Amino acid sequence: MRCCRWQRSTRTAGPGPPAVTNSPARCPVTRCTETADGRFVAVGALEKKFWDSFCTLIDRVDLQAHHRPAAPAQAEWVRAELQVLIGAQSLAWWTDKLRGADCCVTPVLTLVETLANEQFLARGMVVPGTTASGQPFVQLACPLKMSGFRVCRAAPGAAPGPAHRGHPA
């Protein structure tokens, strides 16, 4: 899927995916933009309804018409406008502003922040554990979720393989 109408394939004959002169990352609706405190906000509003919602949230309905810019200059203008707007506030300000909004725009969290994130916890993405010496730890859970199925460890651990029983590997 091309993000902007001005993206063109430059692939010549031969195997492999087509090369694109302007990746979706250069399109204003999919990018990470720096905040005033050096953190980042990720914009992933590929669908127009999310872009429109974001533009309304930030009081810039004039940007709604530029969801898929027709020319690189338009895309650059939208990127610059978003950089000024997002760059004027801290990540904490944006986190509060975006809370509850349905616009596919989110703060970029550190690993420590992610492990404590309410949505991450609610989805069961953090698994607590204890080391053999009794030290608590957390680890990331499997991101694949299936309805009516819960991944669990059936046995305390696999028995050592042949290499551990004195046999050559």
Architecture overview:
Helix content is 26%, strand content 14%. It contains five helices and five strands, in the order ββαααβααββ. It has helices spanning 48-57, 72-87, 91-98, 111-115, 118-122, and strands spanning 30-34, 40-44, 105-107, 126-130, 136-140. The chain has a three-stranded antiparallel beta sheet.
Question: What's the assembly state of these chains?
Answer: single chain
SS-based structural class? alpha+beta
Distance between the termini: 48 Å
Strand content: 5-15%
What general form does the structure show? Answer: elongated
Write the layout of secondary structure elements.
Blueprint: E1 30-34, E2 40-44, H1 48-57, H2 72-87, H3 91-98, E3 105-107, H4 111-115, H5 118-122, E4 126-130, E5 136-140
Antiparallel strand pairs: 1-2, 2-3, 4-5
List keywords for this structure.
alpha+beta; 3-stranded antiparallel sheet; 169 residues; 5 helices; 5 strands
Could you give a short description of this structure?
By secondary structure, this protein is of the alpha+beta class.
